[in-house]
Structure formats: C-alpha cells, structure tokens
Amino acid sequence: MIIPNLWNMHLAHKEKSLTNKNFLNDDELLKIEAKKIKENRVKLELHGIVGDLQFVLINTELHTQEDTLKDFLKYTGHDLYAAMENECEKIFILKNTTTSSADFLIKARKKGKNPYLDFNTHPKTKHLPNTRIEAFVFKCR
User: Whose CA is closest to 117, among 131, 103, 102?
Assistant: First the structure.
C-alpha cells in the first residue's frame, strides 16, 4: 500500500516524526490507512479477489546484493532458482520447492532512476537508499 500524500493527510504525525530525535516507528498511521483501504475494497467489490502471495520483490544496493542472497539462502529454506542480468539490473530468483512458500526476487539496479528514492532518504535509511521491499505480488482469482 503506497499512499503518496500520507504526510499531508497526517500533518500532526509528520511534525512529531520530524522533531523527535529518538524516532520510534509504530503502526498508528498504518492502522488508520489500512482500515480505510479495507472499507474501500469492500465498497468497490474488490474484497476476496486476491489469492496467495506469489513473490516478494526486494531491491538492494548493488554492493550488498550477494550478501543478501547468501543470507536468504542460509536462513529461509529457499534455493537459488535463476539469475538474470542486463545493463539495468541484476536479479536472483529464490524458490522453496519443499513448501508452498512465496518466491523472492532479490534485485539491484545497475543504472536508472530509483522511483522510491524520496522515501528512503531518512536518518535510518539514507545509508542504503536503494534497499527496500518494493512489491508483494499476489495471484488474482
């Protein structure tokens, strides 16, 4: 769920997060917006059309991608299924063939603009501006 104008909708929370030197993340805003989204999905008759999670797309820094891959292979039970590379990106596809677990795509941009960069230039993320979960992809019914 990406809400481009989240901070404009919740100015009091924006001020609180910008002025608080001891930042602590919480779910308050997410819960407010999730409730609105659920209500809207029911109203639009979209509730129930989304099936199982198919894969998670994670973008990393190019210089940390292989360490990320090693950690996933070590700790998740997933295996390297395929690897692809072109002039713009490098992608590893991980699958767990013993369970119905979702796949993981671990990618890194080699060139091109990161569309999420503005969201990642905050005190706790600015040292890894390209690292984030970029998408959860579900099967539609």
Answer: 131
What residues have CB less than 8 Å from 77, skipping those under 6 apart? 96, 98, 99, 101
* Total-model pTM: 0.69
Residues 6+ apart with CB under 8 A from 96: 76, 77, 78, 79, 103
CA neighbor of 95 nearest in space, from 107, 108, 105, 84? 105
Residue pLDDT, tens place only, 101-133: 999 999 999 998 888 888 777 787 888 989 999
Pairing between β-strand 89-95 and β-strand 79-85 as defined by DSSP bridges: antiparallel
Over the stretch 26-63, which tens digit does the pLDDT of each residue have? 677 778 888 888 898 889 888 778 788 999 999 999 99
Residue at 111: amino acid letter? K
Bridge partners of 109, per DSSP, are 89
In terms of Cα–Cα distance, which of 57, 62, 83, 71 is closest to 130? 62
